[in-house]
Amino acid sequence: xxxxxxxxxxxxxxxxxxxxxxxxxxxxxxxxxxxxxxxxxxxxxxxxxxxxxxxxxxxxxxxxxxxxxxxxxxxxxxxxxxxxxxxxxxxxxxxxxxxxxxxxxxxxxxxxxxxxxxxxxxxxxxxxxxxxxxxxxxxxxxxxxxxxxxxxxxxxxxxxxxxxxxxxxxxxxxxxxxxxxxxxxxxxxxxxxxxxxxxxxxxxxxxxxxxxxxxxxxxxxxxxxxxxxxxxxxxxxxxxxxxxxxxxxxxxxxxxxxxxxxxxxxxxxxxxxxxxxxxxxxxxxxxxxxxxxxxxxxxxxxxxxxxxxxxxxxxxxxxxxxxxxxxxxxxxxxxxxxxxxxxxxxxxxxxxxxxxxxxxxxxxxxxxxxxxxxxxxxxxxxxxxxxxxxxxxxxxxxxxxxxxxxxxxxxxxxxxxxxx
Length: 420
Hints:
This protein is of the alpha/beta class. It has helices at about 1-50, 55-60, 65-75, 80-110, 115-130, 135-140, 150-175, 175-195, 200-210, 230-235, 375-380, 395-415; strands at about 215-220, 250, 260-275, 275-295, 315-345, 350-370. It is built from twelve helices and six strands.
């Protein structure tokens, strides 16, 4: 008896150990599955972190950015020795790069160097000011030595503005589109240096006038029949001012005395109106509905009763129907043609895009004969809608014209790369 009990205890202990092993294995598998699931996300964030790390930034040559990152870190944790060591290296490398570039530019002796010289001196000053936000202890550890860049910056600004202003004026004297756009870019730099330098604003306005491509939008009727007067008015009165860019100006009416560089021509080739269609569709809708009750009878025709002697009744059904005439009225108007881009200087077409718009009239009505309870919800929703008069041709053409105007506007917007 004792041996049997002992064996039983051993058996159950072994079972318990097996169950624990299975449970641990199952949990391990679950953890592994979760790890595999989130592994790509973990790798992604590790890569992002490594790419923006100061060491990586220094290695790829962006020591100036590394200084910014390290200063932020040290403001949060001033005792992080590794960041202090990295800042020492990054700050020295970034400053050396700017110093070397300034020396190289000055040695070249070119008159157009001074704007770049100014930018490098400004970077040196901004970087120094950023590092100075750290504690004196950190500044001592990185070997920080304050330098004065004010006089160098003032000198570079003045020489840069003098050159850029003179060069812009020289470019404007050429009275050429590309030269004027380059002059505008030079004058923007002057404005960056000195907000009110001489007559820079006036010269920038002049540069825009010379550097702008003027575009005229016009409508050409090639349908071999006169436009209805309202249609000509709809198509011509398109607003393109929101498509204007710094050096591209759109007009929908010719400005007297203005020479146009490009013409966008809406060439209307076809205006058509379909016949009035009156299509009828005939069908019957049916439904089974309850029509009282009837007794259950056996094979011999006798009434069947339940165990209490009560006669058994069941619902009686009948089929109801309704004859439906569905009337579809339809009519459409279509306007189509091309949007032609023409270079006015050589009368060459640089692009032609097909455009079209359609106005559609569609009305559905029904006539029901029979029991309307048999009708579907869709049919019942049309009950009461009668046949209506077809819209006049001119009304549909006007509607198609309004839609075409939007198509044209969107097409010009999509094709704006054609004219810069």
